[in-house]
Design a protein that fits this description.
- The protein is mostly helical.
- It has a single domain, classed as Arc Repressor Mutant, subunit A (Orthogonal Bundle).
- The chain has seven helices and three strands.
- The chain has a three-stranded antiparallel β-sheet with strand order 1-3-2.
- Helix 2 crosses helix 6 and helix 3 crosses helix 5.
Amino acid sequence: MSKRSLESFKLDAFLPYRLSIASLAVSSLIASAYAKRFGLSIPEWRLVAVLHEDKSATQKELVRRTLMDKVAVSRAAQSLEDRGLIQRKDDAKDGRALRASLTTAGHALFSAIEPAALAYERRLLQSFAKTEIKQLHDMLRRLEEAAENASVDEPHSGAGGG
C-alpha cells in the first residue's frame, strides 16, 4: 500500500483539482488579455486558432478538437461569423454540416494575436528549464491519453483509489 493511500484525502494534493486550478488560472489570464486587446472570448480564440491550423472544420470537428460542448462551439462560431472573422459554407462531404474557415480578417486577427499568445506562454514558462517544459508537455499528453482511455465505469481498486 502506498504512503498516499494511508493518508486522508487532501484536495490541494489531488491531481485533477490541481490541474483544474492551474488551467483556470492560465485561462483567466489569457481570457482577460484576449478580451481586452482583441475582443475575443476563450471559445472564440480556440476556434480561430484551430481554424488557422486546420484551415477548415465542421462543428463536429471543432467540438472534438477543442473539447468544448457543441453549444459553446456554435455560439463562438456564430459570433465570429457575425464579426466577419469566419465564413461557413455547406460541407462537400456532408450536406447537413457547415464547414467553417477563417476569412481574410480572421487570418489578420490570428496574425495579431499569435505573438501575444506566444509571449504569454513564454512568461508562464520562464521559471522552467527547457527539459522541464519538454517533460511537462510529455506528461500532459500522457495524462490526456490516459483520460481518453479510462472508463468512468471502471471499478474502484480498493481503499485509497483515485
